[in-house]
Design a protein that fits this description.
Layout: E1 13-18, H1 21-31, E2 36-41, E3 50-57, E4 60-66, E5 86-89, H2 95-104, E6 111-112, E7 116-120, E8 126-130
Parallel strand pairs: 1-4, 5-8
Antiparallel strand pairs: 2-3, 3-4, 6-7, 7-8
Length: 144
């Protein structure tokens, strides 16, 4: 049986489970400038507000999902927030602008490689802003 390849876009969505959905949405929207593309309301029997919010990322989304405090480790949704790293692609010429954006929102750059700025979101998940494999962060803004 031939299995069809994964679509060229590669990733449909990344899901990050979080305890404080409102703060996480604010961070990804305000600091990282990802638009809210869809809200998934909570089941009315379980309370009000959103159970998940999708943040636009090109043809993909980052799904911020509220962790149900009553869930057990056997549930499909564990109580462990996050994943190892979400690396968002930036242009090399925009690296300094991203430094300024992070400073404006008092977000600490934890580490810098020649390609990536590493930060943490409000729940401690590692986020990279990367222009790998471009060797140098150019200051030219002509494409912006």
């Amino acid at each position: 049986m031939a299995v069809p390849p994964v679509a060229p876009q590669g990733i449909h969505h990344l899901a990050i489970q979080c305890h404080d959905l409102i703060t996480m949405v604010r961070f990804y929207n305000t600091v990282l400038r990802l638009p809210v593309v869809r809200r998934w309301p909570r089941d009315p029997d379980l309370g009000t507000g959103d159970r998940a919010v999708w943040m636009g990322l090109g043809t993909s989304v980052i799904a911020l999902e509220s962790v149900d405090e009553a869930a057990t480790p056997d549930d499909w949704q564990s109580q462990t927030p996050g994943l190892h790293l979400v690396a968002l692609q930036i242009f090399p010429w925009g690296r300094q602008l991203w430094r300024e954006q992070l400073a404006l929102h008092e977000v600490t750059i934890l580490y810098e490689s020649q390609w990536t700025l590493y930060i943490r979101d409000p729940e401690g998940n590692r986020v990279g802003l990367s222009h790998f494999p471009d060797e140098e962060a150019q200051t030219q803004r002509s494409r912006w």
